[in-house]
Design brief:
21% of the residues lie in helices and 46% in strands. The chain is an alpha+beta fold.
Length: 140
């Protein structure tokens, strides 16, 4: 299997608890085509980490890590493994299109979070494989 990998991070101006949201159903434009996938959350610790693996559709897996840099700053690191389909996606992955796409997506995520100023209200429980720990009162 050819796997394209990307890792990027950015420091954003916002507390950790504003960043986590719904990651279960996703789509992206890859090589001019819309790709969709459903993913299972395999690990989630609020304000720290969320990891997923696709279960149907485009094959991919990854994690987003949140590292506090101060009361109003957080480093967000995205680690992504995706399986390119066909020659166009494989060439694109080899010349850095995935990395540039990830950089752009993270910058748009940063802008969204900084403009929002409030949490999304998403579920804040923990997931570790098949174990799920119920939501605790959100820090707001």
């Amino acid at each position: 299997m050819d796997v394209a990998a990307a890792e990027e991070d950015l420091a954003r101006r916002h507390p950790n608890h504003l960043a986590l949201g719904d990651w279960e159903r996703s789509d992206a434009i890859v090589a001019g085509r819309r790709k969709e996938w459903t993913a299972d959350i395999t690990d989630q610790v609020p304000d720290t980490r969320i990891a997923w693996k696709s279960t149907e559709g485009a094959e991919n897996a990854g994690a987003v890590l949140f590292e506090p840099l101060g009361p109003d700053h957080t480093r967000v690191t995205l680690k992504l493994d995706a399986d390119p389909e066909g020659i166009v996606e494989t060439i694109g992955a080899n010349v850095g299109f995935l990395k540039r796409r990830v950089e752009g997506d993270l910058e748009r995520f940063k802008e969204f979070i900084e403009a929002r100023q409030t949490p999304t209200g998403a579920w804040r429980g923990e997931i570790h494989g098949d174990r799920v720990k119920d939501d605790e009162p959100a820090r707001r």
